[in-house]
Amino acid sequence: MAGRPPFDPNRAAAYPAVIGCDEVGRGALCGPVVVVAVWFDPAAIPADLLGALDDSKRVPEPARERLAPMIHTHARVAVAAGSRALIDQINIRGATLDAMARAVARLGLAAPVLVDGRDALPGLPGRAVVGGDRLVPQIAAASIVAKVFRDRLMRRLAQRHPGYGWERNVGYGTAVHRAGLTQLGRSPHHRLSFTRAFD
Asked: Are 126 and 113 in contact (CB under 8 A)?
């Protein structure tokens, strides 16, 4: 049924205890790409938390804000970021994989790593899972924590750099953001490789 959360607490024991890794901000025009790695045993976390996990884009903001601290409480969580400079230096895919490797390393756990998308982490056990934030609860948890972390960061940056609408679009290429680029030019946080049209 549409809208039903993907993870059934009654089946918690069927979900393996793995590291889930996801990113937020890959397609934004500015700011870092934020990566989170999460490990937990689905059978050992509260049932209401497991049942509420989903792709962060499908979870309303108030629920994300409520779930993120719960995830930190009941899971092992590590955050890493690929900076605007690194994105411009090596490309967004490379910066994302670099941040993922650092986040997983910070957990210090020997567990399979399941990564949302099409790129597995080289040299580590695990695999890529297309649509993983609807299939792997740890990836869903990682997506929520990453979204909350990056959105807060972009809203703080919006106070220092008004005119781009980051407090609402969190750096993505909305009409307001593009109009701000046209009128104000780039900020120090804009990715040069993503905003060449505004040269």
From this structure: yes
What Cα–Cα distance (Å) separates residue 88 from each residue in 3, 30, 66?
37, 11, 34
Its pTM stands at 0.96
What is the spatial distance between Cα 194 and Cα 85, in angstroms, rounded to a whole number? Answer: 12
163-169 long-range contacts (CB < 8 A, ≥24 apart) are 164/30, 166/30, 166/31
CA of 10: how far to CAs of 14, 29, 81, in Å? 9, 41, 35
How confident is the model over 172-184, as pLDDT tens digits? 999 999 999 999 9
What's the rounded Cα separation, in Å, for the pair 142 and 124? 18
Task: Provide the greatest CA pair distance for the chain.
Answer: 54
Q: Rounded to whole angstroms, how far apart are CA atoms 111 and 26? A: 25
Side-chain-facing half-sphere of 154: CA atoms under 13 Å: 29
